[in-house]
């Protein structure tokens, strides 16, 4: 699929699938915390209970009267671009690429999950886009530009979820070790670079939350741990965490 005409046909086909998806699902299926996430942006008061980065990402779309449906359009656009880049990196025949893209759009895991206007969907599409950029960069002679763009997109994905860095860490280590054999003299150098990248993302996320957005620490992890422990010990007389409720 090296010819420009084949790439153009594939892009048009994926665009048609995306338009069909939007026609079927607009304005999208809203989850319960969408209003709370958007209210953070409107009030400029952020809490780590609901991803501040998602509030900053979604807020301008709604603030400029584009509606909540614009969030779904953003998700579908990012997914379509990522799918196109993935198929280009695989370098398969046009007919096979068209069939794969159709099956992916109609698969329950995509057709229903992508319809949700949620921070999980935002995290997923950015992670998918970063993966596609990295895979495409492995097929290019000068992959540095694509790799830098993929790192930026991956950082946005990590910012979208509190546990995003934990989810993305194995992916980062795998790519650094397996995808850049020609750039490093050994696995230790690649793993060291992966650690530096994750540490830099952690520092950037901390500065964004505490320095720029002034995020109020609500400690949701502590709340859920106490709630789970309380539920486990509710049936017994000995409940050491009941006083923390």
What is the topology?
Elements: H1 4-25, E1 29-30, H2 34-43, H3 52-63, H4 69-90, H5 94-106, H6 108-111, E2 116-117, H7 119-137, H8 144-159, H9 164-178, H10 187-212, H11 220-233
Parallel strand pairs: 1-2
Helix pairs in contact: 1-4, 1-5, 2-3, 4-7, 7-8, 8-9, 9-10
Written account of the structure:
This protein is mainly α and 245 residues long. The chain is built from eleven helices and two strands, in the order H-E-H-H-H-H-H-E-H-H-H-H-H. It has a two-stranded parallel sheet. Helix 8 (144-159) runs antiparallel to helix 9 (164-178). The longest helix is centred in the last third of the chain and has 26 residues, at 187-212. Residues 239-245 have low confidence and may be disordered.
Topology as H/E string? HEHHHHHEHHHHH
End-to-end separation in angstroms reads: 60 Å
Low-confidence stretches: 239-245
Shape: globular
Structural class: mainly alpha
Widest beta sheet: strand line-up:
1-2
Tell how many strands the DSSP assignment holds.
2
Mean pLDDT: 81
The biggest sheet, with number of strands, parallel, antiparallel or mixed sense and barrel status, is: 2 strands, parallel
Fraction in helix:
over 70%
What is Rg? 21 Å
Helices, by number, come to 11
- The portion of residues forming beta strands comes to under 5%
